[in-house]
Request: fold
Amino acid sequence: MYENYNKMERLIHLHKRELGGEVAGMVDGFDFEMGMVARAGISAVRLSETSSVLFAAAPVLGLSIKDVAELRSVLADPALAQLVRLGIRGNGVDDETAFAIARGKPLRDLRILDLQAGTITDRGLQALQSSKALPNLITIVLTGNPCRSSVMMNEDRAYWIAPAGEAFLDKAQRRAVVSYNPASVDWPPVFDEYAWTD
Reply:
């Protein structure tokens, strides 16, 4: 089984640009899920220029955005409605970024928001926690931010678990415990690695 998986990974690596099609030329990087481009990394400036083409070309569900300074204008883009995971990392990620996300109507289906390595305080986190624009949010990854209000720590990672994610987390943790493998280097699993458990 693993031999076939390794062959598949090698083939994807060798032909990644070709398999990525039109998306490959628009983004800085991308990954496949179930044979399709599902996650991509792109600058906010480039996203503002290509979002309608990008989202028409592939079922991109996860996006990592760079250039935080240009981010606020991109958040109003209705094409972001299909995202279930959004990553925005770095020094420019601050309370103003959190306020902009909290007001963002296109992010209603977002499940995981990754805001690592920023300067978000409890004030910015509270805006996200009370946002009506993020009803399906499961978690916010806050590692490296100074906020501490209702933040859960797991090893060296920090999270806020949204109300919609509490039951989901319990179910995922129970499944993770059942899958315990003492030989695994990936044990214990961290929340953002098993947050997609159904």
Q: What stands out?
A: The beta strands are 29-33, 36-43, 62-66, 85-88, 112-114, 139-141, 152-154, 157-161.
